[in-house]
Amino acid sequence: MIKFLIRTAIFLLAAAIGILLTDWIFSIFDLETFDINWSNPLAFVLAVLIFGAAQGILSPFIAKVARNNAPALLGAVGLVTTYISLLIAWLIASDGLDIGGWQGWIIGPLVVWLVSMLATLLLPIFLVKEGVEKVRENNE
């Protein structure tokens, strides 16, 4: 149960990092088509929770459909679920996340997918490293 909670926390943190960095990258290039509404932070948290839940639910389903019907599309499952999950989060929690225009809907999911994928891979490494360092400090 503890491992499940840790994995869920890492997954949600990676989703939040993906959305935050995408917003930051879009603002660097003066693109206002992928934007977090900071006046309502709870709506942003809700959008992240919806995005994470949708990805967690859709990923196995879409992977199974792709494996059975179109094995060549198996590599695109993460990107497809990111797009659909962002769409669901945007529809439900539009107060926290504003996506519009072709840049927001084409480039946005690509960046969110890439950043959250990297965060999902790297966060456990950093967290384990910090945990090991704390244990060493406590044992000294």
UniProtKB/TrEMBL annotation:
Keywords, comma-separated and alphabetical: Membrane, Transmembrane, Transmembrane helix
Native organism: Sediminihabitans luteus
Annotated SUPFAM superfamilies: MFS general substrate transporter
Statement: the UniProt record of this protein carries the keyword Transmembrane: yes
Residues that span the membrane, as ranges: 9-29, 41-63, 70-93, 105-128
Keyword Transmembrane helix: yes
Region forming the signal peptide: none
InterPro entries membership: MFS_trans_sf
Protein name, entry field: Superfamily IV 4 TMS phage holin
